[in-house]
UniProtKB/TrEMBL annotation:
Span of domain Photolyase/cryptochrome alpha/beta: 21-149
Domain of life: Bacteria
Name this polypeptide is given: Deoxyribodipyrimidine photo-lyase
Broad EC category: lyase
Cofactor: FAD; (6R)-5,10-methylene-5,6,7,8-tetrahydrofolate
InterPro entries in UniProt: Crypto/Photolyase_FAD-like_sf (IPR036134), Crypto/Photolyase_N_sf (IPR036155), DNA_photolyase_N (IPR006050), Photolyase_Class-2 (IPR052219), Rossmann-like_a/b/a_fold (IPR014729)
Keyword DNA-binding belongs to the record: yes
GO molecular function: deoxyribodipyrimidine photo-lyase activity; DNA binding
UniProt EC number: 4.1.99.3
PROSITE patterns hit by this protein: PHR_CRY_ALPHA_BETA
SUPFAM superfamilies in alphabetical order: Cryptochrome/photolyase FAD-binding domain (SSF48173), Cryptochrome/photolyase, N-terminal domain (SSF52425)
Protein species of origin: Desulfatibacillum aliphaticivorans
Family membership noted in the UniProt record: Belongs to the DNA photolyase class-2 family.
């Protein structure tokens, strides 16, 4: 293992070592078989203990704000991960149970439980529960960020400009891929089979999950292979234009890796290194992409890690809450109900197209996400109502909703990680976005035409 890997590894309890039938990797956040330090650490420890590795995943139909669309994408990825782990002699057992109870169930026979790190409130609570109740040692491995959050900073950062130098100081130490370990004791048959992942849609039907909102496999299929194909296409056709075009929704010169990163189906470090090591790529395009996948993404991780109420309006900076409160009584015309917004039924064809892209594909170009959110703030009775509607739509339709990036993105609409701008009605000094800006910066009607042509 690399010498800096120790900074990613943390014991969650003080249980002594014990004999066990296997090392259990409780996979929850990092749902991949490749470039996964938690998995490789589990294999290394299993080799030391001369036992095999078993991987468990807890599937609960009550996951916070998750729905059919999210589950289908996730299970498509888990099915591929299960096949890849089987080739390494490691069974992946998916149990219909809450994640901590699934880990504790198979952890009864484990010599050690290894888990990956999640940053959301419930993910931390789950790991604390397992650490407290497990009879064996529990070790957490941080493998879904490049620079570990507590090493990058010890506080909630104000903006990208404040966290960027801190990340860059550590980047050479941590922008590495984990070394792949060969497992000594392989398992061909495991006595607990778990759920059958061969047909994710049928599995969800058997679990009684309503098919709403519908899956989006025609646009975004889950799994590392689909992610690689999408990334290959991005590098071949779009990367060199990224620094000039990433804010142009009409051209869609973006990677679309958000959903795959959200479910841990790909490694941020692997994506960053692939782009960084390209020999003939445009240097400005490389730098722009690395800024997004490292600095901006890890600013969002910093936000949810150091902000307990990251999903509440009260998490916003004091200056933003103050200026929005001062303008709370300003007339708002038009006003739209949540139902009208969800139905893409406003006077603004650009906004309607963005909402349609989200509803139909589970994705929205990032520049349109900003415009989309600013207009909801403008068209809602109050900032608090706007916050509530934004989070509801964000978490329901986006594949990568319910994610640190999404919570930070919603917060940005209201001034998080931003600065004050010229004062205006409704927004105060919070940044405003106008349709004229879209018209000036891109061929926005081409974007509308493309989205209107989509077939659900």
């Amino acid at each position: 293992m690399h010498k800096t890997d120790a900074a990613r590894i943390r014991r969650l309890n003080e249980r002594p070592g014990q004999k066990g039938a296997y090392v259990l990797y409780w996979m929850q956040q990092s749902q991949r078989a490749k470039h996964n330090l938690a998995l490789e650490f589990a294999i290394s420890r299993a080799n030391d203990l001369d036992v095999p590795v078993v991987v468990v995943f807890g599937l609960t139909v009550n996951y916070p704000e998750a729905n059919y669309r999210h589950y289908l994408f996730m299970l498509e990825g888990l099915a591929e991960t299960q096949r890849q782990l089987r080739e390494r002699g490691i069974p992946l057992v998916v149990l219909e149970n809450s994640p901590p109870l699934a880990a504790l169930d198979l952890g009864k026979k484990a010599a050690l439980i290894v888990t990956d790190k999640g940053y959301m409130r419930h993910q931390r609570e789950w790991r604390a529960q397992v650490a407290e109740q497990a009879s064996c040692q529990v070790v957490q491995v941080e493998t879904d960020v490049i620079v570990p959050v507590n090493i990058a900073s010890q506080k909630a950062e104000w903006a990208a400009r404040t966290i960027r130098p801190k990340i860059n100081r550590e980047l050479d130490n941590f922008l590495l891929l984990p070394e792949k370990c060969a497992l000594k004791n392989k398992v061909r048959d495991f006595d607990i089979q778990g759920l059958d992942l061969s047909d994710p849609a049928s599995l969800l039907k058997n679990l009684g999950m309503p098919e709403t909102p519908p899956g989006v496999s025609a646009f975004f299929k889950g799994g590392a292979s689909a992610a690689q194909k999408r990334m290959d296409k991005f590098i071949q056709k779009s990367l060199d234009n990224y620094s000039r075009h990433h804010n142009r929704p009409d051209l869609a010169d973006v990677s679309g890796m958000g959903p795959y990163l959200h479910f841990g189906q790909v490694s941020a470090a692997a994506l960053a290194l692939r782009v960084k090591n390209l020999k003939d790529a445009d240097p400005e395009a490389q730098a722009a992409y690395l800024e997004q996948i490292i600095v901006r993404r890890e600013l969002a991780m910093n936000f949810v890690h150091f902000t307990p109420n990251y999903d509440q309006y009260a998490c916003l900076p004091t200056w933003a809450q103050k200026t929005l409160k001062e303008r709370a009584q300003d007339p708002r015309d038009p006003l739209y109900t949540p139902d009208q917004l969800e139905a893409c039924d406003t006077h603004d064809p650009y906004w309607n197209a963005a909402m349609r892209e989200m509803v139909v594909t589970g994705y929205m170009h990032n520049h349109m996400r900003m415009y989309w959110g600013k207009k909801i703030l403008e068209w809602s009775p109050s900032p608090q109502k706007a916050w509530d509607v934004l989070l509801y739509l964000n978490n329901k339709y986006f594949l990568d909703g319910r994610d640190p990036n999404s919570y930070a993105g919603v917060g940005w609409i209201f001034g998080l990680h931003d600065r004050g701008w010229n004062r205006r009605p409704i927004f105060g000094t919070v940044r405003y976005m106008a349709a004229s800006g879209l018209e000036r910066k891109c061929k926005i009607k081409d974007y509308v035409a493309r989205i209107e042509s989509l077939t659900p």
